[in-house]
Design goal:
By secondary structure, this protein is α+β, with helices and mostly antiparallel strands. It has helices at about 1-20, 35-45, 60-70, 135-140, 250-260, 275, 360, and strands spanning about 75-85, 95-110, 115-130, 155-165, 175-180, 215-225, 230-240, 260-270, 280-290, 300-310, 315-325, 330-340, 345-355, 370-380, 385-395, 405-415. It is globular. It starts with a helix and ends with a strand.
Amino acid sequence: MKFAISLLIALLLFVTFQGVAQNDADTLKDFTGPAAVGNQLINDSRPNRATRFWYALDSLDKKKERFYERTGFIAGVDYNSQIMAATNVIGNTVGASGVFRIYGKWNMVKPGTNHEGGLIFKVENRHRYSDNALREYGPLDVGYAGFMQSVYNNQSWRVTNLYWRQVLGGQDKVVIYAGFVDITDWTDVYVVASPWQSFNNLVFATGSGALGGGYPDGSFGVMVNAWLTEQFYATASIVDTNGDPTEFWKGFESFFGDFETVKTLEVGYTPNGLSSAFFKNAHITFWQVDKRAEGGTPNGWGIIGSWSWLYGKYLPFVRFGWADDGLSFYDYSISAGFAYNIIGASNLGVGINLNKPNSSTFGLDLDTQYSGEFFYKWQATHHSELTPNLQLIGNPAFNTNDNFSVVFGLRARVFL
């Protein structure tokens, strides 16, 4: 399977460069997730966002845009804070964490042209308020096998993104990322995949929790995104599984020295190109991960599938993941639900999931888990969001005393 995935990635690269030579009339761009730096910057500056209470920072947005037009440089900053409390636990009842982020891009080579190139960066400080950060709150406190919030850990300062983005002719038909990347920025994305603004639980994000390799971010890697036609796109990547975002500079040595990587290949369909890619999308993703000698984790592979389609203001979705080892959380995971008013400033989402924890990863043969989640993101002001959240956890695998827990959450985000 490892050879097959590598061969498919090589074929994609060949087809990609052939496609650029054949047709440069398209105006399509790279398709990445809502939490990727470029999309986060666009989302933060959307003109239709609510400005109900104050307008003091609106002029700053306009100055940033003018500066970007002159220099090709733009940056954003935000602070994210979240608290969770559960009814039945094996540890602490309450968990809370915060994350400070600086993110941006600098288009240094031919900005605004068909050969644009630039630096993408994201620096974060992730910290806890409680005994356990929210990333660990699920397994250690609630007894849930998985992440009920995947990004709020206690790593302190880290570099999540520091890579070069290069357009290869064809008016953004092909885009390459190379450097220190986050695999969740492009793998199995859909419009409510962001743990900063949408669902919290990993089962409603990348791979439905069934992607192997430990979801590396701040790791050295390469990604190629190509629009094969106006309706079909493909994305291939190879990323180091030994990367450490708190010491990202060591990634060169681990990538080229150990060469223990996770590979992905995704093919997707959307009816109207990039304009509909977030809102009407179906894709399938194949992944393979190498055995890690130092980490002692096995190799593995898997398949991920997703369908999400906008009907009026409703966007239903069905997603699944299946894995054969590879440090995946689950042998299989199936999610379904819907989002409402996702194009608007304030929106909500509802999802349900069932999953079977991977005995190889957890070292135990655990029972099937069930979960549901509801969130409502309220755009309080032009530069602040408040998101109440509710998770229902059925049969939490590590809780031998209770088979059900209700988890209340509240997330706040302030951004400039």
